[in-house]
Amino acid sequence: MWIEKAVNMLMFRKLFITLICIGTICFSFAMVTKGDDKTGKKTIQLSLPPATKKEEIKLSEDSGEKDVSEPKETIQLSLPPATKKEEIKLSEDSEKKDVSGPDKTTIELTTGTREITQESQGEPGEGTHADRQVQVITKYLKRNEFHVYNLPNLKEGEMFYVYVERISGNLDPFTGIAGGAFDAARFEKVGEDRGRQALKTKVDISSFISELLDEFFFAWNDDGGTGYDTALVFPIPADNDYKLVIGGRTHLSTLEQDANRSFGRYRLTIGVNASDVLTGKATPTGNKFASVNVDFRHRVQEVTATLAPEKDHTFFPLVQLDPGETLHAFVEATSGKLKPSLKLRDFGKKVVWADTFSEETKSAQLQYTFEKGDRNYVLHLEGVGKDSTETTGDFRLLVGIDAPEVLQGKARPWGRSIVREPIKVRTAIQLDQITSISQKAQNFNVVGNLFMEWIDPSFAFSPDTCKCGKKVFEPSQFDKFVKENGLLWPRFIFYNQQGKRFSQEAVFHVFPNGKIKYFERFAVTLQAPDFNFAKIPFDPQQFFIRIVCLEAQELYVYTVDTELTKVGQKLGEVEWYITNLEAQISSLEFDEFKSMYSFRFVAKRHLSYFVFRIIVPLLLIVMVSWVTFFLGDYAKRIDVSGGNLLVFVAFNFTIASALPRLGYLTFMDAFLILGFAVTALTVAYNVGLKRLETRGKKDLGHKIDKYFVWCYPVLYAGGLFMIYLYFFH
Question: Are 232 and 238 in contact (CB under 8 A)?
Answer without folding.
Answer: no
